[in-house]
Specification:
111 residues, mainly alpha, 3 helices, 56% helix
Length: 111
């Protein structure tokens, strides 16, 4: 069967097929480029870059903004800053514990 180019039915069907196809197409968000760490120098370079970016964010926080929540029912900027500062030591403690095989030590000293 031959299609008629100027036939309204053919144009309508073509538009419907195009709409159906458009609904099936999923646009994936662009992935961020991830750093590949192969050597200690790679890690040191990435650490310096990330540290500098984090420091810029921390420097932008003022005393007045410390109590500002990022949104309803979320941490304040001050809590997030404190979390970032404390997380490095916590992660290093966990690495040391895992290396020593001491994963069951208490996290707090009571008494």
């Amino acid at each position: 069967m031959r299609r008629l180019a100027n036939c309204p039915t053919t144009k309508h069907a073509s538009r419907l097929r195009h709409r159906r196809a458009a609904r099936r197409i999923k646009v994936r968000p662009k992935r961020e480029k991830r750093a590949v760490i192969r050597t200690i120098d790679d890690f040191a370079t990435l650490w310096k870059q990330e540290s500098a970016e984090t420091q810029k964010v921390l420097d932008a926080i003022t005393d007045a903004s410390l109590s500002q929540p990022i949104s309803d029912d979320h941490r304040t900027l001050g809590r997030i800053a404190w979390h970032i500062a404390g997380t490095i030591k916590e992660m290093m403690d966990r690495v040391a514990d895992a290396a020593a095989g001491d994963l069951n030590r208490p996290r707090r000293v009571e008494g």
